[in-house]
Amino acid sequence: MDISAENKMVREMARDFAQNELKPKAEEMDRTGKFDPEIMAKMAELGFWGIPWPEEYGGAGMDVMSYIIAIEELSRVCGSTGITLAAHTSLGSYPIYAFGTEEQKKKYMPKLCSGEYLGAFGLTEPGAGSDAGATKTTAVKDGDGWILNGTKNFITNGEHAGVFVVAVSTDPPAKTRGITPFLVERDTPGFRVGKHEDKMGLRGSSTTELIFEDCRIPDSAMLGELNQGFKVFMKTLDGGRISIGALALGIAQGAFDEGLKYARERVQFEQPIINFQAVKWMLADSATKLEAARHLVYHAARLYARGENFHVESAFAKLYAAVIGREVVSDAVQI
Fold first, then answer.
1. How far apart are CA 238 and CA 91, in angstroms?
2. In the predicted model, what is the mean pLDDT of the chain?
3. pLDDT, position 134
4. How far is CA 327 from the centre of its chain?
5. What separation, in Å, do the N-terminal and C-terminal C-alpha atoms of the chain show?
6. Average pLDDT value for residue range 172-193
7. Is 295 left (phi over 0), alpha (psi -120 to 50) or beta?
8. β-strand pairing of 145-156 with 138-142
9. Which residues share a beta bridge with 215?
10. Rounded CA gap, 29 and 256, in Å?
11. In CATH, what is the architecture of 5-114?
């Protein structure tokens, strides 16, 4: 596939890091359900946390494709690391960069790009998520600030994040026309991280509740304009879908690589099992699916990078990569 020299450099860097630093610790992170702080620090040294953001804010100044390729390569070895980076960048950092004031960007982007802060995105609730209009977490005006009350759940990076982009209802009767995003720092009084989810997979990535109990934040914590948050979140999720497509693609590619390696090594009836046509069919089908998914993910990333509309294409990429990801992994296990 036609990618730039910079993209190829990022691919090699990410692949080398994944194989030499991440792979030896991936199983332990999944077993314990803990993201290794040494991995987090090494990713900061290599600039992973700020790949697509401008250098003026502490980022690497690279393009969206480089970021997507990095997620793909990390996820080939450890999906937990891939989703941690995806949520941090696409969901936790993007809204601040795209919709924040210059003061907010200067305050938070350098910390997010350096890895001092991880970012997180608080939209999902027991009865809300894709249905953002059903958001029950509220913000009530109080002098020169706001009082937040409510609970978010299934929040990626909740355990480690230093700043959270949180969707709250500032005008409940208005539904989606009454949603506003706020920036909440981890040590804000009245805010705490709740239950940690004990998941079946991606266990090295933290997934938690966020609990707000009379949590007071200043007016300056509002992200964007009052009651205009629905647009912010829809644009944020569009970009996030490409990163999740890259995550699924990477996981599937990693499983395929292991299945192919095993098929070449496993001997039955005095020959490697890759010589049997039934195994070849499975590998050929998987390789075809991976190539198709990669085209969809990369195409959406290119549209994003060029500033073109990618709303539909990002959904295609996420949907197809997730579907074939399950199929490719299943076939690799069978092999």
1. 10
2. 96
3. 87
4. 21
5. 28
6. 96
7. alpha
8. antiparallel
9. 148
10. 21
11. Orthogonal Bundle (1.10)
